[in-house]
Structure formats: C-alpha cells, structure tokens
Amino acid sequence: MSIYDQARALGKEMLECEQAKKLYAAREAFDASKEAQKLVEDYTLLKQKWTQVMNDKDSDKIQLTDMSKEISEMEKKIKEHPVTSELMKCETEYGAFVNSIFNLITVTIQGQEANTDSCEGCCSSCAGCH
Question: Which one of 4, 73, 101, 130 has the lowest number of neighbouring Cβ atoms within 10 Å?
C-alpha cells in the first residue's frame, strides 16, 4: 500500500470515528432546527453590520458599543441553545481529535516517539487528546 493509499485510508477512518459521528449528528440536528439556524444567521448579520460600521471611516462609532452588547447577548443565546451548544462542542472535540492525529504524525516525522499510552489529557508532548 502506497503512502497516498495509507493517507486516504486514514482520512476515511477519521471520517468514521466516534467524534465524527457525533459531529454529523449535531450538524443534522442544527440543519433540522430553524430556531438554531435563525440565531446563527442573526448573529452573522449583526457581526457583518458591526464590521461595516467599524470599517466605515465616516460612520458614527458610538453605535458600536450598543452593537457589541447585542453581539454578546446573541453569543450567550447561541451558547445556551441546546442545538448550537452541542454543535460547537462536537466541532471542538472533532477539531481536537484531528489535531491530535496531525500532532502524532508531526512528532513521528521528526523522529520522536509519541507516548500516547500514559497520557490522560490534551498535550503536545504525547500528541494525544484523550
């Protein structure tokens, strides 16, 4: 098996792992929730508006304070909503998993031995995230 075939196989396994399955389920739940989608859409639009005001040298910057408060409130709502909260959690966990795999590959390429057997947390010394 060539190194490219091995990379493809690893990629497929990473798409079929438990963290990926949880992420897919969370994305499906988000796609099915109009309320969650609306929260994120409203948040995105407000952030875009904030950026426009910030970048417009002729705009009244005082309104940024109120917009910033509104953005913070919306962020809190998104974090507290069960669907968006679960999606963010699953994205974070899958991202940590992918990073641990890349760290392990990097450590191995550098000729070091990664000790994933004794590690119980996320750290660069073992390249693992458990």
Answer: 4
DSSP letters spanning 3-48: HHHHHHHHHHHHHHSHHHHHHHHHHHHHHH-HHHHHHHHHHHHHHH
What are the chain's domains?
A: 7-94 (1.20.1500)
Contact 52, 67 (CB under 8 A): no
**Secondary structure of residue 123 in the 3-state scheme:** strand
CA 32 to chain centre: 19
Chain segment 14-61, per-residue pLDDT in tens? 999 999 999 999 999 999 999 999 999 999 999 999 999 989 888 887
CA distance 80 to 70: 15
User: Residues 118, 124: contact at Cβ < 8 Å?
Assistant: no
* pTM across the whole model: 0.76
Cα dihedral 33, 34, 35, 41 in deg (nearest 10) = 120
Phi, psi at residue 89, to the nearest 5°?
A: -60, -45
